[in-house]
Amino acid sequence: MPDTADTAAPTGGHAQVGVTGMAVMGRNLARNLARNGIRVMVHNRTTSRAEEVVDEFGHEGDLTLARSLEDLVAGLERPRRVVVMVKAGAGTDAVIDELVPLLDEGDIVADAGNAHWRDTVRRKEALAERGIRFAGVGVSGGEVGALEGPSIMPGCDADTYAELGPFLEIIAAQVDDEACCTLVGPDGAGHFAKMVHNGIEYGVMQLVAEAWDLLDRVAGLDPAAAADLFREWNGTELESYLVEIAAEVLAHTDGETGRPFVEVVRDAAEQKGTGRWTVQGALDLGVPVGTIAEATAARALSGGTDRRAAVREALEAEGDPGPVDLDADGPPALLDADDLRQALFAATLVAYAQGFDLVRAGSLEHDWDIEAADLAIIWRGGCIIRARLLDDVAEALEVHPEAPTLLAAPPFAGLLADRLPALRRVVTAAVAAGVPVPVLGSALAHLDALRSERLPAALVQGLRDYFGAHGYERVDRDGTFHTLWAGDRTEVATD
């Protein structure tokens, strides 16, 4: 725990941590530090923005103003700790390039922005040549989390974490008296974990949206009634931040029109790229993350309004089966509310499992030695994907580390077996009603593929060998083989 007493700094200036970049996230992170007794110096390229932070929130703690990066560096105790909270990419590079010549050997620069993990590796290596320590710090929780306690995923060397970690732990969310912050691993590990977190977030958000779409277009529930159902679900195994706020958004009424908020918002979802990064990283590592990929594609598809309009007009004759009454007497309804709850849980678990599969693969590929169970623990609070099921995820990862995927580990294998029929019925109902459920459908396909004794990849391998002589393996003997398709179709060994 850092010494927060109001005493003179051992060497250098007065402040213990400097924060440069006073947009919402940087401002709130600085306030969080100050509220927790940390002496903080704030800086922004436009000085007036940093002045506003000190003037408006200086009463919350020890917040002092730096009018330049030179002032910021001079005002920090040594080793200096500078947190960079500016726009990822070129903006971060520009600040670091300006900052580094002012620092001394052993000082620490922490990038807490939404950086790509490869940029973090590059920056760490470049700063190490000058004797300056670098940390890539993933932060999740949005502006509220930054102020009240986020989930924090640092990637750095152990000696760097010894100097920086205590300050991060004190401002992180706390669950069961544990800080939602841990040293994830070296160099890019922290931002890689944050990237995967955001990929899971993409998947779960789309699942929640698909559940609402089915309640609207198949069950015929208005947004207020759907909100009530989401609130009910949030008292079950589905309890999570995203289900909780889905109820809030669905219940909200537009002040100008009096209509439900979701009916006046344009149905074109935006993205900042982390979902795409996750999919690209998974492709590089050969890890199937279909729920995340389909969620990312769904956002892209939603924005193609001209394309959507053209196809809608072209297929107008197809029609829409319309809603069905969940409570109707007679034949079973196409969509059952409890089936949907179970399907949403099963598909959500698939999204988490795919994310943890990717974390494991990335850790092995880059020698990061990430403890997946630790991520589950720090994701229980502060972050966007916090959920009740993460307690069980953490336990499963700790007790069954040998399981090749979370889906095969107790208790999840049994939970999925129980809920798979409901997921299948929901996807079937969606297809029958003409309602797209790309992520629910992908989760079902993922489970069905994993449980299949034989997949059609044998034909894929045959086709590859036919046109490209890529070879194949056999089930009855070792080795790699090729069939002479253009000749007499005999088989030859290729290894």
Topology, pairings included?
Elements: E1 17-20, H1 24-35, E2 40-43, H2 47-57, E3 63-65, H3 69-74, E4 81-84, H4 90-99, E5 108-111, H5 117-128, E6 133-140, H6 142-148, E7 151-155, H7 158-171, E8 174-175, E9 178-179, H8 189-217, H9 223-233, H10 241-251, H11 261-264, H12 274-285, H13 290-303, H14 305-314, H15 337-366, H16 372-378, H17 389-399, H18 412-433, H19 438-451, H20 457-468, E10 472-473, E11 480-483, E12 491-493
Helix pairs in contact: 1-6, 8-12, 8-13, 8-15, 9-10, 12-13, 13-19, 15-18, 15-19, 16-17, 18-19
Overall 3D geometry?
A: globular
List the uncertain runs. 5-10, 326-332
User: What characterizes the major β-sheet?
Assistant: 7 strands, mixed
CA distance, first residue to last residue: 59 Å
- What class do helices, strands and sheet pairing give? alpha/beta
Cα Rg = 26 Å
Task: Name the helicity range.
Answer: 40-55%
Strand order of the largest sheet: 3-2-1-4-5-6-7
Q: How much strand?
A: 5-15%
Write down the overall mean pLDDT. 93
Number of helices: 20
Overall strand count: 12
Write up what this structure looks like.
The chain is of the alpha/beta class. The chain contains 20 helices and 12 strands. It has helices at 24-35, 47-57, 69-74, 90-99, 117-128, 142-148, 158-171, 189-217, 223-233, 241-251, 261-264, 274-285, 290-303, 305-314, 337-366, 372-378, 389-399, 412-433, 438-451, 457-468, and strands at 17-20, 40-43, 63-65, 81-84, 108-111, 133-140, 151-155, 174-175, 178-179, 472-473, 480-483, 491-493. The strands form 3 sheets. Strands 3-2-1-4-5-6-7 form a 7-stranded mixed beta sheet, with helices on both faces. Strands 10-11-12 form a 3-stranded antiparallel beta sheet. A two-stranded antiparallel ribbon has the order 8-9. It is globular and about 80 Å long. The termini are far apart. The model is unreliable at 5-10 and 326-332 (pLDDT under 50).
